[in-house]
Amino acid sequence: MQIHSKGIIKIEFDDLPGREIGFCQIYPNAFKISVDRIYWNAVNDTDRFSLLVHELCHCEFDIPHYLRGNAMNNMVFY
Asked: Sorting pLDDT into bands at 50, 70 and 90, what band is 31?
């Protein structure tokens, strides 16, 4: 396994669709973490930290939120 840290992390707060509270996008020299602003304002610091670490791990290790196959068994947990 190769860790491919990009060095630049951008965090953006937005109104995300549906029940989504965060996601991470990989760019050639950066990661961009998008966080639902309503969720962020409603939770405590521990939940905020957990969300950021969770999303950063998706980018750092290039792990999708969902794996292919059965939708009932494809959630990725950290």
From this structure: confident
